[in-house]
Structure formats: structure tokens, C-alpha cells
Design brief:
15-stranded mixed β-sheet, disordered N terminus, 307 residues, Acetoacetate decarboxylase-like, globular, mainly beta, 15 strands
Length: 307
């Protein structure tokens, strides 16, 4: 649905996340309702970094499609002000961009591509503290949804980040298509303003200029829904320079999703990867904060669950 939001000055076009209830919520004007919708989501009473809180995070597994890996996690990240913006795309257009061995996953016969801006803090390796010059930066990815054997996951077409050292580490360690970018995230009056311009030598240009905000309280997605299909993913895939398919597991609590609205001034992120997004409205979902654990990549040689 495209309309002029009563919360935004001017009369620019605003994209509103589709879903039941979005028409009435976008019209809520009372201050108390706005404060309730825009209030930060509290994931746990304390900062989840070590000790009892980390044990609690690791013990929250009933939502996972398979058990946690038996090996230790190696990295902690905290994701903030994240927007999922998803468009339906022709399956053949996406499948041609995937490596051999990965099968494109469809929801009710439809492929989906996501553009996902957010920022990270507390990025650190296991047993080390977060470092001010390395542990907090913006990130922006373009992704789709795949399966290797029986295990679903995420395939990234690109990941742009503001921190050049983090980009180098991610490209060499996980062989993910990270790119250096000039980025800025600012939140004003409950609305996130996001800017990203790729500055990576030899990479295709890509840029995003937009603003977004939640329009509903947080809730967990239900299995079998499109929201669950797009967000509840606990494995990512990548290819190394020799063409081997790599898999890496992640863990977090269920996403505290909020329906969202957004205004896109410029978005060439998917186009830079050879994907044409349709002119239709995207499905929009916002998450205020999520703590994430990451396991090291390994060759994905079978369809068995990780051990």
C-alpha cells in the first residue's frame, strides 16, 4: 500500500508493510500509541554478552529447525534497527545466480529477494572484548533463500559494510561477497534514516537512500507464514574460490518482528547483483534488536543437521 503517512512531514510516497491490520495502524495518531509502537524491544533484562545471559541465549532452542551445533560458537554480534524489505522475483532470474548444489527455495511457488539494512554493535570473537574501532558499524545485505539437501538457509548476493577491516576479514574468512561502503544510520523521532554508497574498488556501484520505521508492536512470526519463511533462518551458505560450498550456522532468539513503513529515495542494491526488482510494494518488517551467535564455516558436504 502506498500512501502519505500522517507521521512524516511532506507528502512523499511511503511504502507500508503489507499484512492484516496495516491500514488501521498507519492511521494511529495518538501520542501514547506512537510511543508504544516505537518503543525499543527489550530482548532480555541485561546485556547478553557473557555468563548467565549467554547460557540463557544458548538454552532458547525450541524454535530452531535443528539442534545447535556441538562445536563452540566463535562470534557474537548484536543487530539493531534492522529492516527486512522483500520483493517477489521470478525464480529463473534468481536460480541462474546460484552456485551448483544450491536449490532456490520458493514460498507458494514464488522466489523472494531481500534488501536488509541495519547496524551492528558488540561484534567480537569468543573470549575477547568488543573493540571500539572494529565492533560497531552499519551493514546492508541483499539475499535470497535456498536449500542444500534438507537444510534451508540464506544466500547473500552482496554485503556492504562501513568497516574496511571487517570487510577484509569476512571476505577471507567466510568467502562472503562483502564490499566497503560509505554508510550512515541516524534515528530521528523514531524514524531510521539510512544511507549507503559502495566504495569498493572494482565492484559494481550500488547505493541505498531510504528511511523507515515500525508501525506495529513486535510479535513472533508463525510457522507456515511468509514472514517465518523469510526471517527464521539459521544457516548461511557461501562458495570459496575453488567452488566448494560452505555452510555456517547461526543462533538467535525468534525475531521480534514489527510491521513497518519505508520511503525509498534510491535503491540499486539488487540491480548491482543482476537482479531486477519489481515495481510492486515490498513486504516490510522491522526488528529493534537481536543478539546473534555465529559458528565457523565448513564445507557443506551433506544434508545432515550440524553436529
Amino acid at each position: 500500500m502506498i500512501l502519505t503517512s500522517p507521521w512524516m512531514p511532506g507528502s512523499g510516497k511511503v511504502l507500508v508493510g503489507s499484512g492484516e491490520g496495516s491500514r488501521t495502524l498507519i492511521g494511529v495518531r495518538s501520542r501514547s500509541a506512537v510511543r508504544a509502537i516505537l518503543a525499543p524491544v527489550t530482548i532480555s533484562p541485561e546485556t547478553v554478552t557473557r555468563g548467565a545471559d549467554m547460557r540463557e541465549l544458548l538454552a532458547t532452542t525450541e524454535h530452531r529447525p535443528w539442534p545447535l551445533p556441538g562445536s563452540p560458537w566463535v562470534m557474537f554480534q548484536r543487530w539493531h534497527e534492522l529492516l527486512f524489505a522483500h520483493w517477489p522475483v521470478a525464480a529463473e532470474e534468481v536460480q541462474r545466480l546460484l552456485p551448483p548444489g544450491l536449490e532456490l527455495e520458493l514460498f507458494e511457488g514464488q522466489a523472494w529477494v531481500g534488501v536488509v539494512p541495519f547496524r551492528m554493535t558488540q561484534v567480537r570473537l569468543r573470549g575477547t572484548p568488543a573493540l571500539p574501532w572494529l565492533s560497531a558499524f552499519e551493514e546492508l545485505n541483499v539475499r535470497t533463500y535456498v536449500r542444500h539437501g534438507e537444510l534451508p538457509g540464506v544466500w547473500f548476493f552482496s554485503l556492504d559494510a562501513r568497516n574496511p577491516l571487517a570487510v577484509r576479514i569476512a571476505r577471507s574468512w567466510f568467502h562472503l561477497p562483502y564490499f566497503r561502503a560509505r554508510m550512515r544510520l541516524e534515528e530521528r523521532a523514531g524514524e531510521v534514516h539510512y544511507r549507503s554508497e559502495r566504495r569498493h574498488a572494482g565492484a559494481p556501484p550500488a547505493e541505498l537512500r531510504m528511511s523507515y520505521a515500525p508501525i506495529a508492536p513486535p510479535e513472533r512470526s508463525r510457522p507456515g507464514t511468509l514472514e517465518h519463511f523469510l526471517t527464521e533462518r539459521y544457516r548461511l551458505y557461501a562458495s570459496d574460490p575453488q567452488g566448494a560450498l560452505l555452510a555456517g550456522d547461526i543462533h538467535h532468539r525468534p525475531w521480534p518482528l514489527q510491521r513497518a513503513r519505508a520511503r525509498f529515495e534510491l535503491n540499486t542494491m539488487a540491480e548491482a547483483s543482476g537482479i531486477r526488482l519489481p515495481a510492486s510494494e515490498p513486504r516490510l518488517h522491522f526488528a529493534r534488536e537481536l543478539d546473534v551467535l555465529i559458528w565457523p564455516p565448513r564445507v557443506s558436504a551433506s544434508s545432515a543437521a550440524p553436529r
